[in-house]
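Onboarding guide, step 5: your first structure request.
Type a short instruction followed by the sequence, for example:

Predict the 3D structure of this protein.
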Amino acid sequence: MGPLLGGAGGKPEGMNLLPPTYLQRSGPRLTSTQARQLILAGSVVRWPGLAFVLIVGLLVPPRSVLLLVVFTLWATAYNLYALQASRRAPDSALARTGRMLWILDELSCFAILAIFSAVHTEVIYVCFILLLMEAVALDGAEGGMLAAAVFVVGVSVYQGAMSAITGQPFPGTQVVLWSLVVVVSAGILSAFDRILVGPQAQASRAEISSATEPRPQPAVRLTAREQQVLELVAEGYSNTMIATRLHLSESTIKTYMETLLTRFNARNRAEAVAAASRLNIL
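The system replies with structure tokens like these:
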């Protein structure tokens, strides 16, 4: 993450008050380390899953060997990306990366169903419950609802396409039943997230917000004469010109300038004018 504040009057450039975390609107606020570990865990689990699919392809003839090869290459590619992302993705991109990966996992489940006619749909549908848990862990309630929506749309499209290709009746009862199972599961997981994780998240957000709010500058009170001198300095007047304008000695103006520099903790006239502008004194 980049610097929060910089330049005159701000925090030194490079200072970052935020801890390594991404905050979703109602998600479970994992730290970046936890999010990376979760993405890495998913990547590790995908390898035996992919190996299992290849073993099934040797034991059970797929509908299309070409589809199986394409699926293997595709799944390998995005899992290699997941491994890289778990280590190198910036904190701000972790939520987006995790969301993309579990959506790809859901699409992969439907791809497996399309490739193998002998695979029971119920076995694959159970995997969606595990993906729901991952979605809620990374994205909170929104992730759970999005994962459920992807399932409902995906299962409807898949079963409709299979019915059109094979000529078999559309399994409406099965689609509705599993859609309800996934949606209810998503609701339960999301409620669990909001009830148990929500209060912790709000406390963390309040703590981070208070840490990042700019601290009020101490009030600087100037006398009428100091205010006059400051305004003339801001207009570019020299000490001699200010002394002439205010009918004072130049040594008196120098004393006023020393006082102003001290009040604004400035090293020179330009810094004093800049500090006064930030404090709305000018």
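Each response can be followed by summary notes, for example: The longest helix spans residues 121-166.
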